TrEMBL record:
It comes from Candidatus Riesia pediculischaeffi PTSU. Residues 43-56 have a biased composition (Polar residues). Coiled coil: none annotated. The keyword Secreted does not apply. Belongs to the universal ribosomal protein uL4 family. InterPro entries: Ribosomal_uL4, Ribosomal_uL4-like, Ribosomal_uL4_dom_sf. One of its GO terms (molecular function) is structural constituent of ribosome. This is Large ribosomal subunit protein uL4.
Amino acid sequence: MELIIKNSQTKIKVSDKVFNVRFNGSLVHQVVKSYLSNLRVGTKSQKNRSQVSGSNRKPWKQKGTGHARSGSVKSPIWRSGGMTFATKERSYEKKINRKMYNNAMRCIFSELVRKKRIIVIPSLIVNDIKTKLFEKMITNISENECKTLVVTKKSDERSILSSRNLHRINVCNISQINPVVLIKHRTVIFTIEAIKAIEERLIT
């Protein structure tokens, strides 16, 4: 298939195996869910009664003191005692193999093409680090003010610095794209180099 280059009569030929495959909603859902789960950090941890500091000696004898009976100062009902059901570190990782991930990415790219949410430009040239000028340039390319993602082959410091104060425009290179960031942006702008590099990566 062919994609039209923005502001040009020429077209770029891309592989149907990457940009024209049947959408598999369940696979995409599974990969997105896995990606979001892997971002979670299960580092919360509490101490149970066996881990808090303190003596295991019985505080006082069982009867005759007038106190309620107690067996340890580390009891959960005592101040500075252990937690009854202590939370422990856990992993939320959901493993997805590389083949499934690549197939999901092909589905997403194909759906973006079908919905005309992908724009191809020859290159992204940013001469000055000016947020206002950069925003105007991207708005002219996308022809709207929706949430936009700009993908380049390599990181460009000028474009990154120009866009970091813009809440609706994000810039990344091909190694930083993922299923979630592609789905949540209304328009995705690719340079020719970037889209060719992605095609080469996903076609194998």
